[in-house]
């Protein structure tokens, strides 16, 4: 039993959490000793007490790989147990979702839940929390709000690739896992690794301003410096490592598509991370920087703006996934005359990125690169993280291929084989959207008709 607790070094046990919650809920009626016994001695439960079984029915279903009609899914506790209605007990609860499409809970592989949009005209970096005006506590509260916003959009798992508040992403992930707050499951990267003056360094800070070490960016130099940065992030209990292999759109003073890491630095990061079982995500714009990250062993390329055919073919051969974040640059340009004021420099970089984006995406599709859904929400309001679906459709992707990016492909990228598909034994993270998504994906940009997280209906 002790091995199943959730200290910082052990995996969260959903069974233990559910058992504890049930026991304490019964405590008011049966007394504290009986409650404790119910946790420590599961066999002491009342006779006949069983987990609730629910039958979900919908006109259509996408199981992470393909469509079928009608759709049936039997859920017991927090798991899918069958896709056959005949395998459910006679007293199971039936929920008919009508003319909707049932599918696995969606996964966003590129989020920034600690980032938020500021709408004051004098700020040139609207997404970045001020290091002097916003406390870690404020960042945590805003991150929780952003995470629940994404859950309301039907995203039951997030891969958060760069935190702006020290330890906030880890604390939020753990609080959700422990059942202290309601939110999507999270895998977190902590601080993004950067070169001095690089995309994930603070180039907008005045040189006479100094901050505490915990607020400093994860800047290093040389292969051994970056190995140490990986180890520091690992010490902070991250799930993956994020590097900024090239310049970026929303960073001052750098070329948005120029390589920033040296080859030996990329290799050092991936070697060190893989040694500890962590995957590496690489922010990269422009083919030279993308190729640097691919051949350096990174597991996914974030943005992947303007990838050329040879590099795309190398991605396919090596199994490197693409996380395209299509709406992000578009959203920056869309705001240039709006309430959020970006500098002319950043607007110009975003326009260059948009010009290279679609052709690179088409080359990646033609080369057979595996695509995982990711949005870069935090650059734009988190409630807009469903806009990439329509942009994928406009580039010619079929509905099944689009949905697969946010389900099976995303789960494979994260290494979380217990979700992303509808199959017996997997987590009952399920959503439903109105209509037949095999014919029209438009409902994906609307609120889902149904959201279930770990067998618990929340919408």
Overall form: globular
How much is the radius of gyration in Å? 23 Å
First-to-last CA distance: 33 Å
Low-pLDDT residue spans: 1-9, 27-48, 120-132
Strand content: 15-25%
Main sheet makeup: 6 strands, mixed
Total number of helices: 13
Q: Give me the count of strands.
A: 19
Strand order of the largest sheet: 3-2-7-17-18-19
Bin the helical content.
25-40%
Round the mean pLDDT to the nearest integer and report it: 88
- Class inferred from helices and paired strands: alpha/beta
Describe the structure.
- The protein is α/β, with parallel strands linked by helices and 459 residues long.
- It is 33% helix and 18% strand.
- The protein has a 6-stranded mixed β-sheet with strand order 3-2-7-17-18-19, with no helix packed on it. It has a 4-stranded mixed β-sheet with strand order 5-4-1-6, with no helix packed on it.
- A hairpin with a 4-residue loop joins strand 2 and strand 3.
- Helix 1 runs antiparallel to helix 2 and helix 5 packs parallel to helix 6.
- The longest helix is centred in the last third of the chain and has 24 residues.
- The chain starts with 13 loop residues before the first helix and ends with a strand.
Keywords:
four-stranded mixed beta sheet; six-stranded mixed beta sheet; single chain; 459 residues
Brief overview, please?
With 459 residues, the protein is an alpha/beta fold.
Give the helices and strands, then pairings:
Layout: H1 14-30, H2 32-40, E1 53-58, E2 60-62, E3 67-68, E4 71-76, E5 79-82, E6 93-96, E7 100-104, E8 106-111, H3 136-152, E9 155-160, H4 168-177, E10 185-188, E11 193-194, E12 218-219, H5 222-235, E13 240-244, H6 263-275, E14 279-285, H7 287-295, E15 300-305, H8 309-318, E16 321-323, H9 326-334, H10 344-367, H11 388-394, H12 399-405, H13 408-414, E17 430-434, E18 450-453, E19 456-457
Helix pairs in contact: 1-2, 3-4, 5-6, 7-8, 8-10, 9-10
């Amino acid at each position: 039993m002790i091995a199943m607790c959730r200290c910082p070094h052990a995996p969260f046990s959903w069974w233990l959490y559910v058992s504890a919650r049930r026991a304490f809920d019964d405590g008011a009626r049966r007394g504290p000793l009986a409650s404790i016994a119910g946790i420590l001695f599961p066999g002491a439960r009342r006779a006949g007490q069983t987990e609730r079984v629910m039958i979900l029915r919908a006109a259509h279903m996408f199981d992470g790989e393909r469509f079928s009609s009608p759709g049936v899914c039997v859920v017991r506790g927090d798991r899918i147990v069958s896709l056959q209605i005949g395998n459910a007990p006679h007293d199971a609860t039936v929920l008919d979702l009508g003319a909707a499409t049932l599918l696995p809970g969606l996964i966003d592989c590129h989020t920034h839940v600690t980032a938020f949009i500021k709408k004051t005209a004098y700020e040139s970096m609207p997404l970045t929390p001020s290091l002097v005006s916003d406390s870690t506590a404020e960042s945590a509260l805003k991150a929780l709000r952003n995470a629940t916003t994404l859950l309301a959009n039907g995203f039951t798992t997030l891969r958060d690739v760069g935190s702006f508040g020290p330890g906030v992403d880890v604390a939020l992930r753990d609080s959700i896992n422990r059942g202290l707050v309601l939110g999507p499951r999270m895998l977190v990267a902590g601080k993004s690794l950067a070169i001095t003056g690089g995309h994930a360094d603070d180039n907008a800070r005045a040189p006479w301003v100094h901050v505490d070490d915990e607020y400093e960016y994860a800047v290093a130099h040389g292969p051994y410096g970056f190995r140490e940065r990986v180890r520091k992030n690992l010490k902070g209990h991250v799930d993956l490592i994020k590097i900024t292999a090239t310049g970026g759109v929303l960073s001052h003073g750098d070329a948005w598509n120029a390589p920033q890491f040296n080859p030996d630095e990329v290799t050092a990061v991936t070697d060190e991370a893989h040694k500890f079982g962590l995957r590496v995500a690489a922010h990269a714009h422009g083919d030279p920087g993308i190729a640097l990250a691919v051949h350096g062993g990174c597991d996914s390329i974030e943005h992947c703006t303007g990838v050329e055919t040879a590099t795309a073919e190398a991605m396919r051969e090596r199994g490197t996934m693409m996380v395209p974040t299509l709406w992000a640059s578009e959203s920056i340009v869309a705001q240039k005359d709006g309430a959020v004021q970006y500098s002319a420099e950043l607007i110009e970089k975003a326009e260059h990125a948009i010009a290279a984006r679609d052709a690179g995406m088409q080359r990646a599709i033609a080369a057979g690169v595996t695509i995982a859904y990711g949005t870069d929400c935090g650059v734009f309001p988190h409630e807009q993280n469903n806009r990439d679906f329509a942009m994928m459709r406009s580039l010619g992707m079929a509905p099944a291929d689009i949905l697969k990016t946010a389900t099976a492909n995303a789960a494979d990228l994260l290494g979380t084989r217990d979700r992303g598909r509808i199959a017996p034994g997997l987590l009952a993270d399920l959503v439903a959207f109105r209509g037949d998504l095999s014919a029209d994906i438009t409902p994906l940009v609307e609120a889902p008709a149904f959201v279930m997280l770990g067998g618990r209906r929340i919408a």
